[in-house]
C-alpha cells in the first residue's frame, strides 16, 4: 500500500510596488516583477509534483521488499500486497516460474496457492489484472500452510518450457522417514538453480531434543545435504508428529535417502501445492518384515479413509480391531501428524482418501525379492492419482540386475506392453496389478488408454555382490521435463542415470552442460511407443550434483539409481504430470 503524506504549501506574501508618477519611474517595473513571481510559483508547483512522484516510487519498492520477506517468514495470518508491472499468461496452473525481483500468485488445484517469480521474461502490450486471495499461516514458527497474495500486474508474459520449472519442483515439501528394521542414517538432498534460503521445521509438539537437532535456517548456493536423526523414523500404528517441513524462498528439488551398511532406499518428494486427497498404495509381498505405508497431514482435522486391499486376506489388527480385505479404517490427523500401517502381506491397491490434501508414502520395511540376496528398504512418495500417466518407457538396471515391473490399474482397463519384439495385451480390474520382468539388456514399453501406475523393483545382481531390491515409480512420457538438477548420493559403488527420450533429439542431450561421453554409456537401445521412436540410455555418473538438459528443449525422462555392497537405491526426476 502506498504511504500517505501531507504536504503543506506555505503562502508567499509579496508586496507589489505601488504605482507612482512618471517622475519616479517605478510604474514601469511592476509587470516584470509580477512575471518573475508567476515563474517562481510555476517552479514551486513543478518541484512539489516531482517530490510526490519520488515518494510514490519509494513506497512501491518498499512494499515489494516487504512482500518478499513475508513469503518466506510469515508466521501468522497475513494478507500481502504485491505490485508488479508485468502479469503472466500461464498455460499450466502447476507451473512455477523463477526470478529475483517480482512475484505473482497463481492458484493451483483446490484452494492451494503458490507464489511465482516472473520478472525476467520479455513482455508485450499492457493490460491490468488484480488478484486477491486471503491467507492463513499454518503453524507457529513456520510458513507451512496456505499462502495468499494480492497482485497488481500489467503487461502479460508468455511462458515457454525453457524458462519454467514444473513437475516435482516447488517451494514447500513434507518429508518423513518410514520404519526400517534398524535405525538408519536419514538424509535429505536439496538442489536449487540459484542461491536460496531454506527453512527446516518440525511440530511444536515434537520432543525438544529432536526438534533442536532438526529445525534450522540454511542459506544454500546450489545444493545442500540435511541429516535427520534416526529417531524420526515412524513407528507402526502410532499417531506421531514426525513430519519435517522444507520451505524455500525459490523453487527447489528434494529427495531423501535412508542408508545403513546393509540396506538403503530413496524417494523423490512432491511439493505441498501438488499434493492430493487420493492415492493408491504400492508395496511387495513380504518375505521378511512387513509391507507398509504412511500418511502425513498438512492441515488440522484431516479425515483419512483407508480401504484395504490385501494379497492374502490376513487379519490386520489396529487398536484391537481386526481388518480384512476391503475393510475401511478411518482416522483423523492434525497438522504435522503422521500415521504408519504395516502388514505381513502385500498391500498394493489399498486406496487412501482424505478430506484435504495429504502426503502418502509406501513400500516395505526391508524386503528380499525372489528369495535371493538380502533385504533392502523400499520407499516411494506416492503421486496423486490425478497425476498418473498412461504411457511409459521402462529402462533396465545395470550390473546384471533384473527389473521387476509392476503395473497397477487405477480404473478398469486394458494395456499393451512390449519387451523386445513380443507384444502382449492385458486387462485389469480397478486396483489390480500385473507383474513382468526384464533383464539388464532389455527395455519395456507400456501403453494404456486409462491411467496406470508403473513401479519398478531392481533385483539382486546375479554376478556381483552388488545391489538388493530398490523401488522406483517410473515417470510416464507425459511427465518428462527438459531440465533436471539432482544430487547423486554418495557411498555407492556404481551410480547411473537412465535417459528416456525421442530418438530425434538424442544428440541434443547434455549432462553437466557437456555432451555425453561414449565410454560412460553402459546400455543403449531404441524402441517404438506412442507413435514415436524412443532412445534409452543408461549412463554411469559420479556422486554429487548433476544437471541434465536438452539443447533443443525436448523433454525426456530421467531415473537415477545406484548399487553398493548388498544395497541399492533409486528415484525418478519427476513423477507428476507437469
How would you summarize what this structure contains?
With 578 residues, the chain is mostly beta strands. The chain contains 2 helices and 42 strands.
Describe the fold and architecture.
This protein has 578 residues and is mostly beta strands. The strands form eleven sheets. Strands 10, 11, 12, 13, 14, 15 and 16 form a seven-stranded antiparallel sheet that branches. The longest helix is centred in the N-terminal third of the chain and has 44 residues, at 30-73. Mean pLDDT is 80; it is low at 1-28 and 56-165.
Write the layout of secondary structure elements.
Elements: H1 30-73, E1 80-83, E2 88-89, E3 103-107, E4 113-117, E5 128-132, E6 136-139, E7 142-146, E8 149-154, E9 157-158, E10 170-175, E11 185-191, E12 196-201, H2 208-214, E13 216-220, E14 223-228, E15 244-260, E16 263-268, E17 276-280, E18 291-297, E19 302-307, E20 316-318, E21 321-323, E22 328-333, E23 338-343, E24 351-367, E25 376-381, E26 391-394, E27 403-409, E28 413-419, E29 422-428, E30 433-438, E31 444-448, E32 452-458, E33 470-473, E34 483-488, E35 494-502, E36 509-511, E37 514-515, E38 521-529, E39 532-541, E40 544-550, E41 556-564, E42 567-572
Parallel strand pairs: 1-8, 2-9
Antiparallel strand pairs: 3-4, 5-8, 6-7, 10-15, 11-14, 11-15, 12-13, 12-15, 15-16, 17-24, 18-23, 18-24, 19-22, 19-24, 20-21, 24-25, 26-31, 27-30, 27-32, 28-29, 28-31, 32-33, 34-40, 35-39, 35-41, 36-37, 36-40, 38-39, 41-42
